[in-house]
Amino acid sequence: MNKLIALFTTFVFAFTLAACDVDDLDVGIVLPTNEEPRWVQDEGRFEEALEDADYSVDILFSDGDIGTERENVESLVNQGIDVLIITPQDGDAAAAAVEEAEAAGVTVISYDRLITGTDAVDYYVTFDSIAVGEAQGQYLVDNAPEDEGNPLYLYSGAEFDNNSFLFFEGAWNVLQPKIEDGTFDVVNSSEAEDLKDNGDLSREEMSNIMGQIDTEWDFDTARSLAEADLTNVDEEQKGDVSILAPNDGTARNIGDVFADDDDITSYNVTGQDAESPSIQYIIDEQQSMTVFKDVRTLVDDAIDMALSVLDGETPDTAGSFDNGVIDVPSAQSEIVTVTRENVHDVIFDSGYYDEEDFDNVEDLD
Ligand code: BGC
Hints:
By secondary structure, the protein is an alpha/beta fold. It has helices at 2-9, 37-50, 66-78, 95-103, 129-142, 162-180, 190-194, 203-213, 219-232, 248-259, 276-283, 295-310, 343-349; strands at 11-14, 27-31, 57-61, 83-86, 107-111, 123-127, 150-154, 184-186, 239-244, 264-269, 289-292, 319-322, 327-333, 336-339.
């Protein structure tokens, strides 16, 4: 059934030069889910960037399911792709699928999330994910309502995603000294409290903390965690609070839960992705910040790499990431903190989104 759906929903949007075999696809793109605006945004940016391309591309979504992801990869490999651009649903679990692709001679580009535990990844395009977490932590530090004892609620991304560790590591780099010195009081993770003197957590220690605060990148899970936290804490752990939310979707859902609690007087909540619903939340003061990761740059990097491969050249890379088995050559893009103060400049004036699509933009001044 999934295969059928994948076939019917397949959207081949750029067709080939006359010289190309129309049955043979050049590039396959696999994205994790179309339930999150983040990845729908990537699909749109790929389509925009490839509008005039003279090679054929197909984009498939994996519905957040590793079985569907495997089927998507197999279907693309069977259609003869030369390059696979893939954001794994689960970094470890995707290894088997890309090993199959590599065995068929396909060049594999890991897109935004690193595929781990295999040598079957040729390149990695990504943002500076540690900087994402640092920007989130810095916002909370800079905007802490009191000098000390500020209740801090921590939430992380899914443990199946390597990025979640990088985001958390970045946030911890900035927050930990302020937890240690008493500026913040972590209220929803006993593991984080126990480790508050440790500025350099091992992966296992991070995993122990994240095990208590893991949103699984899922809106309902994020909401349930926040509801449970607010039920479990004392009244003095409410009031004016700070919330580390790992991305925009979780920020909106966690923020809504805090907004509904009468004992919460104010909250600062972080995010990332500059998803359009979160830009609206920022304008309306329901979300404090987001980290803008310009997907246009990431898409361009991935396409440049794919084109080099199709032209028989070696793509340019600036660094590398250890995926547990090899150092994967990588290209990394910068990030920008967006708040109500600079949203107009960074998001509208840069042409990323059209301000006409948002309400209350006039209130920004
Ligand atoms: C991406 C984020 C995204 C999250 C959930 C991460 O790997 O880097 O941009 O919000 O996955 O999909």
